[in-house]
Amino acid sequence: MFDLSLVLAGPYRDLLVAGLLLSIKLTAVTLVLALPLATAVALLRLAPLRPLRWMGFAFVESIRNVPLLAHMLFWYFGAPELLPETLKARLYEGNFEALSAVIALTLYTAAYMAEDIRSGISAIPAVQREAGRSLGLGYLANMRFVILPQALRITAPPLISQTLNLWKNTSIATVIGVAELMYQAAAVESASFRSFEPFAFATVSYLSVSLLITGLAAWQQRRYPVRPA
Amino acid sequence: MIRFEHVNKWYGAYQALVDVNETIAKGEVVVLCGPSGSGKSTLIRTLNRLEPIEGGRIEIDGKDIHAPGTDVNALRSRIGFVFQQFNLFPHMTALQNCTLAPVRLGRLSPAQADEQGRALLERVGLAHKADAYPAELSGGQQQRVAIARALAQKPPLMLFDEPTSALDPEMVGEVLTVIRGLASDGMTMICVTHEMGFAREVADRVLFMDAGKVLERATPADFFLRPQHPRAQQFLADIRSPFGNG
Amino acid sequence: MLELIDTYWLYFLVGQYPNGPLGGLALTLALASLGLLLAMPLGLILGVARLSPWRALRWPVTALVFVVRGTPLLMVIFWAYFFLPTLTGAKTSQFGTMLIALVIFDGVYLAEIVRAGIVGLGRGQVEAARSLGLSHVQALRHVLLPQALRHMLPSLVNQFVSTIKETSLGYIIGLSEVSFIATQINTQVFTKPTQVYLCLGLTYFLLCFGLSRFAYWVEARVAARGRRRPLAGAPA
């Protein structure tokens, strides 16, 4: 009744594996872009100046309260209209689907990570900040050498949790035509008229990477436990 | 009434109880004392099976409490346990805390439980606080309600795990008065406490523990005046002159 | 943009109703509300099962929770879409498919919230209840759940916000929720995608941001009542 060989060899398997690899690539690229952005936004949220704090708040709230699907639709269908014709044409020629997906994913993930980083920094007792500043370090230098290294340990578990969410969120890129794992599973389903095998493959793939990420979290907590000041 | 035979307990690689052998008679008031980490709380918690044991046997009224088929809930309803942190149920009034178990375990009707609850609160001096929530009570008052709650089951045995250690000093007295009252009424009690004055007054026997072993057992008079074991002597010396023997 | 809103506002809000099934924002809200409502009993059962002393109950539920949480919601929707008809023997509507997927997915997340709520009460409450002779079930029913559920209220509102966002995935199976309707509008109008999708984003934002603020208010109220009744064991 279920014929797994359909997806474990041959062209269908190649399609699915290509999809899996693209999903992983999307995750990796987004992660690299989102982390620095998230850190910047977190620092904005904690800035001494009110307008800066408000900017950070606006960024986080306007992104988190809109579903990722709507973000993707906006960046793929809505945003290019704002660009001049020539640029728009060039974009659609290239792999604009993937680009929109990465933009949407990066902003969405960064908004969530920014909150986790902000909590992590806030969790460092104020005296640590004062200690750094009284040594003569400026705000940013203080952040870089004193606060962020400590905050990183506290923040690592929620950040890994967000990475898990990111991994699952890459599936939504299917809606704008990115040929990641979900898209390929649906494509194989259409082509072969078998639903169980491609979806089983996709489910197992998602679960395996999720397991890896969760395992990473457990390892990190054991190896680098939070040391109270 | 209670018998510990070769009781051993480990937390992983750490041995918390080392070959404990004791007998406690009905109506006896026993005080367990010793330094932190000596295993005294662990020992009484094995009696109502809040802690499992890895070796040996514990008998209450001649019955092995770990025998297969033992009804743990029935066992626990016959033992009153008072915690260091009181652990009152914050979403219930003092009276409701006392009536919950008798009603839910089918022993009393709600009306009977209510009557008994008020009588018990009266006994601990808190009849006027029957409808107060734990947040509205001081620490000493909460602990007294906790004692009333434990008594609501009419247990033949009461266990106290450092009942006054979490209290501000001025409230210790009111709780000890209640416990003293129970002792003089003939209740079988095991009390883990640092309150040496209380122990001297109320206990029939003192058991001194260190590192999981019972090192000395004596009457209060003998223990406090003529401790035999060097660790016991050290312990009492530390208590008397907390700034060291320089 | 204003004429866009003027022309399509009703379609955006209720879809083709009354000339067809309910759609648009109304459908989004109906789906999210119903989904969360049905997910709550499931979450309660699963959460309590995760804490059960019986391994035969605990392990399968833990496995289920792990599998559902490690899979994208979209995957759960596809499974429901392709396999529910086989299971039920009848063709399942898009609404039904989406509802089932949401109930399972949110049920599992609620289970974790329930479990965390109970565990967060601390060992003291459990030990006090069990020491009185109450059984595991009695302790849950009379001592642990009443406290945990009250503390969970803010998380529930946040979960509702998440559920609203999750309904957007109905788009992929052609359910006429608000994102799908927006795309329909965009196809018709064709020349104003930026405005259409900005409107969509703004709608979600107003709805979800409003609800999150409500969650904060609820949390503050619970905390204020909690100051009247702090956790047991703390001297007042």
Describe the fold and architecture:
The complex is a heterotrimer of chains A (229), B (246) and C (236). In chain A, 80% of the residues lie in helices and 0% in strands. Chain A contains ten helices and no strands. In chain A, helix 2 (10-45) runs antiparallel to helix 9 (181-192). Chain A is flat and about 70 Å long. Chain B has helices at residues 40-47, 72-77, 94-104, 110-123, 139-151, 169-184, 196-202, 220-225, 230-240, and strands at 2-11, 14-24, 29-33, 55-60, 63-64, 79-82, 157-161, 188-192, 205-210, 213-218. A six-stranded mixed sheet of chain B has the order 6-7-8-3-9-10, sandwiched between helices. A four-stranded antiparallel sheet of chain B has the order 2-1-4-5, with helices on one face. In chain B, helix 3 crosses helix 4, helix 3 (94-104) packs parallel to helix 5 and helix 5 packs parallel to helix 6. The model of chain B has no long low-confidence stretch (mean pLDDT 90). With 236 residues, chain C is mainly alpha-helical. Chain C has a single domain, classed as Orthogonal Bundle (MetI-like fold). Chain C is built from nine helices and no strands. Chain C has helices at residues 2-14, 24-50, 55-70, 73-88, 94-119, 123-131, 136-167, 178-189, 193-228. In chain C, helix 3 (55-70) packs across helix 5 (94-119), helix 4 (73-88) crosses helix 5 and helix 5 packs across helix 7. Chain C is globular and about 70 Å long. The termini of chain C are far apart. Residues 229-236 of chain C have low confidence and may be disordered. At the A-C interface, helix 3, helix 4, helix 8, helix 9 and helix 10 of A face helix 3, helix 4, helix 7, helix 8 and helix 9 of C.
